[in-house]
Amino acid sequence: MSNYDAVVVGSGPNGLAAAIVLQQKGLKVLLVEGKDTLGGGMRTLELTLPGFKHDVCSAVHPLAVAAPFFKSLPLKKYGLEYIQPEVLAAHPFEDGTSAALYTSLEKTASGLGADSNAYLDLMGPIVEDWENLSADILAPLRFPKKPMGFSRFGWKAIKPATALAGTFKEHKTKGLWAGMAAHGIQPLDNWATSAIALVLLASGHARGWPVAKGGSNALAEALAAYFKALGGEIHTGWMVKTIDELPAATAVLLDVGPRQLMDIAGKRFSPLYRWQLNRYRYGMGVFKADFALDGPIPWQAPEPTQAGTVHLGGSLESIAHAESVIWKGRYTDNPYMLVAQQSLFDDTRAPEGMHTVWAYCHVPAGSTRDLIPVMENQIEKYAPGFKKRIVGKHAFNALDMEAYNPNYIGGDINAGVQDLTQIFTRPALRLSPYRTSAKGIYICSSSTPPGGGVHGMCGYHAAQRVLKDLF
């Protein structure tokens, strides 16, 4: 006799999503979290100075509002409030100009000069059909619900980002495109790197790139509150070492990576499945920096001063070179960087008149090098006077990131390379990527399709698989 219908291990966005789906069906569900607080990558801490709230991992949430599942939930009722920056993302250049992404497709295109029509032609059909496309894009490999629209998207998405950049003429547009594609944390000449750029741009036009008021932990807290309101149970401070320590359940869903899956339940798997998990590939790591400032970043260009997210690295060629160099295990003094400025729009993040800055750059897997000076110099290049405004700082190197979240092997926040060979086969080649070889044991982490990002769709699809298999 099972104590629970399902036990979910891990409270990142996918673990919470899986638990909610199952609880919505009236099952008895237990959610187990190793740390004392919930959230996985959705946590907010005073990392630099008292009163400065810094998002530890996820900071800006385009997919949380654009993906089908989370937006279907009544999270506002449980305290979640999103704030939309006027400029979703800006991409400055050293000459003091910049490109910018706005919610408005037309306003974005109008700022791209000679590329205005090309941008509208590329993005218009995807944005127009986003509500239909998103369900197929953020899903495991299957026959799409809207095959014609999905095939048109797929023809563009499968191309290397460097190749599809040939659609544009202006260096500003190519730079904006490269900044989007580099979220994929791999060389931009890899096949299918256009997919991440298309998804991020389209989701911005469809739903924006919001921040959660008070910090990313607000999203985790709202999800958890809704789960408990449905009758779900939560147990924190329990770092599961082996599946045998869990209470009896018809299904166990693990929001963990392949290595942790092997440690927890490997003895129950078939030799073939263990072999596949051991071949799973991880990618580059990240170096994460947080700054406390006595004023906003003094950007030269106007658009970044109103942007929630800023991409640094310059031209398409510069960003492509930086990502290629780091992929090969080396470093660069001109890294691609993501910078988030939540406190410009959310006055709960810092004391009055002060500001927080969230930033990361890519590094070789497992890096322990201190890149704070490099990152400060990179921001200073586009915002002279930035360094003078720093009153506190904090850093996680790649191994610190792994220590914070064991799913981030070597600092890989995507929990595995999302290249063409591992997009749909993560973590193993199976009819359902969420099933393990052991009956009743499932994996629901970012190491399953559709991969990294705060969207909950890995957990959603894993839970749907459980319902079809066992209930």
Describe the structure.
The strands form 4 sheets. This protein has a 7-stranded mixed sheet with strand order 7-6-12-13-14-11-15, sandwiched between helices. The chain has helices spanning 13-24, 62-66, 105-110, 116-128, 130-137, 147-157, 161-164, 171-181, 194-207, 217-229, 258-265, 271-278, 316-327, 372-382, 398-404, 457-470, and strands at residues 4-9, 29-32, 44-45, 54-55, 82-83, 87-92, 98-101, 211-212, 233-235, 249-254, 285-293, 307-312, 337-340, 355-363, 390-396, 441-443. Helix 1 packs parallel to helix 16 (457-470), helix 4 (116-128) crosses helix 9 and helix 8 runs parallel beside helix 13 (316-327). A hairpin with a 5-residue loop joins strand 6 and strand 7. The chain is built from 16 helices and 16 strands. It is an alpha/beta fold. 57% of the residues are buried. It has 2 domains: 4-44 and 57-78 and 212-280 and 415-470, FAD/NAD(P)-binding domain; 82-208 and 284-404, Polyamine Oxidase, Chain A, domain 2, CATH 3.90.660. InterPro entries: FAD/NAD-bd_sf. Pfam families: NAD_binding_8 (PF13450). It comes from Negadavirga shengliensis. This is Phytoene desaturase family protein.
Give a quick rundown of the structure.
This protein is α/β, with parallel strands linked by helices and 471 residues long. Helices cover 33% and strands 16% of the residues. Helix 1 (13-24) runs parallel beside helix 16, helix 8 packs across helix 9 (194-207) and helix 8 packs parallel to helix 13.
